[in-house]
Amino acid sequence: xxxxxxxxxxxxxxxxxxxxxxxxxxxxxxxxxxxxxxxxxxxxxxxxxxxxxxxxxxxxxxxxxxxxxxxxxxxxxxxxxxxxxxxxxxxxxxxxxxxxxxxxxxxxxxxxxxxxxxxxxxxxxxxxxxxxxxxxxxxxxxxxxxxxxxxxxx
Length: 154
Prior knowledge:
Elements: H1 7-42, H2 53-56, E1 59-67, H3 70-75, E2 86-92, E3 97-101, H4 106-153
Antiparallel strand pairs: 1-2, 2-3
C-alpha cells in the first residue's frame, strides 16, 4: 500500500502523525503532573517519631530520597519504609531530625529510562538490519528472475 502513495502524501502523513504524538505527550504530561501533585497532597504516611515539623516549618534535606534496605522493609523497623519503600532524612529548623517516606528516587527513574531507550535503540537497529538484509535478498532474487527470463528470450 505504501508503494502506491506519492512522496508528498507520505511526508504529510508522517508530519501529522508526529504532530499528534507531540500533542498527546504534552496533554499527558500535564495531566500526569496534576495527578502527582494531588496524590502527594493526599498521601499521609507514617513518620518516624510521629513528627510533622517538616510540614509546618522550613527544613533542609540531610539525605536525599533513598531506597530502604530489605531489613527495614521486612522488619518494619522504620514505619516510613512500609508504604513506598523509600525514605528521606530531613532536619527541621527547630533542629529535629525526621525520616519521612518519599516517592521513587529520580536517579533510579533516570537509569530505567536510559535502559529502556537503549533497548529500544538496539531493537530498532536490529530491525533495520534485518529488513535491509531481507530487501537485499529479495532484490537479488528479482534480479536473478529477470536474468533467467532474459536468457530464455535469446
